[in-house]
TrEMBL record:
InterPro entries assigned to the protein according to its UniProt record, in alphabetical order: ABC_transp_unknown, DUF7088, Motility-assoc_ABC-rel_GldG
Keywords (A to Z) from UniProt: Membrane, Transmembrane, Transmembrane helix
Protein name: Gliding motility-associated ABC transporter substrate-binding protein GldG
ABC-type uncharacterised transport system domain boundaries: 199-497
Native source species: Solitalea agri
Location of the DUF7088 domain: 37-146
Transmembrane segments: 531-550
Amino acid sequence: MKNTKQKNILQLIGFIAAILALNVIASTYFTRIDFTKEKRYTLSETTKGILQNLQNEVVVNVYLDGELPANFKRLKKSTQEMLDEFKAYSNGKLYFNFIDPLASTNVEKQNAMIDSLAKSGLQPTNLMMKTDKGNTQKIIIPGALVYYEGRQLPLNLLQNSSRAGAGTQEEAINASIENIEYSLASSIKKLSEKNKALIGFTIGHNELDDQHLSDIGRSLAESYQLRRVDLNAVKLADLFKFKTLVIAKPTQPFTEPEKYKLDQFLVNGGRLFLLLDQVNAETDSIRTRGMSLATPISLNLDDQLFRYGARVNYDLVEDVYCARIPVILGEGNQAQQELLPWVYYPMLISTSNHPIVRNLDAVRCQFINSIDTIGNKNIHKTVLLTTSPYTRKAKVPAMLSLASVQEEPNPKDYTGGPQAAAILMEGKFNSVFNNRTIEGADLSTPFKAENKESKIILVADGDVIKNDVSALDKQIFPLGFDKYTNQTFANKVFVENSIDYLSDDSGLLTLRTKEIKIRLLDKEKIRAQRLQWQLINTIVPVGLVLLFAIGHSYYRRRKYAV
């Protein structure tokens, strides 16, 4: 008896020692196990590196709280779970709070909070909610503010909210959940990164001015150093310091020495973001005169782009899926302004799963050209944005008349199919100037015919990156904002994603390809089989309990029967 007691005590001591040892090991070596099929709670190595290298504390205030519809509760829960993962890998330097922006019962305080968050970059969203009293409107703010070293950055959690054909609200919420890790990691990286890559915007060819690049400039300045670059004056060695060059809507030709610098910049690993118009057409001149002649623009880049693997055509793409412009109809007292579809303002979409454009809303354009790709075995090409299938192409020169806007476009007349308007080219580019002598070329740096892999994003519309400026008070409108319909298109997101893909070699943008499948119940089956499953869920559990009770009683009688 004594030996048994001692044995039990030793076993208890051993068990307690094992538990203590397990706790010591667990506190020293950190690990987490993700049992989900799509590994939704497994952070990428890039994200872990960002969190583990934090020098100071990060605070994330999430304003998606309070009384929420079921779908947004799911978004809130997913955000909280992701923040828990971030906190676990941040070495105690990440904190987060969930705040109900409408917690106050005072309407004035609620409005003040909404206005304050809107000024910080978080826009409210109106939702219709079903209650016992019927349908009521509910204002929510699906966003967060990220703070680091006295700076803040707005983070909008709701993605894909306005894309044409985005489907149900469940799909929109699911797209937002898929994007949470990228959105959070990108915001923290923007605030915490010390060594920012250098991005150059070229000048000297009548490119877009600072006013019309103001909005995208403010956004990019959070992640990069921005400079203006005069290709005619800059030394080639200094040009190599830039990670990416942006050429935004030039209207004057490039000289051969300038083209040589672009070529050598690319061959040496630099990246190019080209937003080009091959046709001169402006809506303002059409409104003033009622019509205008669209004419080709010679940028002297055709031969270079052709060798790289693409051609921007001298045409105008007309698309049934287009934006609307204000037009005065009638005369005198009967005149009134209406918004009518303008086929020369296509709204570009993407069916690609590439991280630049995955789950991207429509991108608004003005007078776009089509792009053809040229065979080049060393260069991989990805079509990023296309028009709708209901298109046709107009050759230039072409007379554009505002009178045509009054005719509703008939899809039967637009059978051109989808036209590529933005492409990505990646690989080892061969120099266009191999075995060529260029007078005035900068030869201070040794010539290279082929070297490092590089990337080009080519967009056949310079207005994609252009924000509107009010003619009255010079107010800067957000990039992609349509002042006539108050709708915001995805121009800014597309440009930011493009710059990130070209300039950030960490691979962070690839997180946008993360996919979480929606596993929703079939509503039709629910209706058809409702009674069947109600009976199964009520009768079967009771039946199992009764069977267990009868079996247990029978077993006891047999066991203890005399």
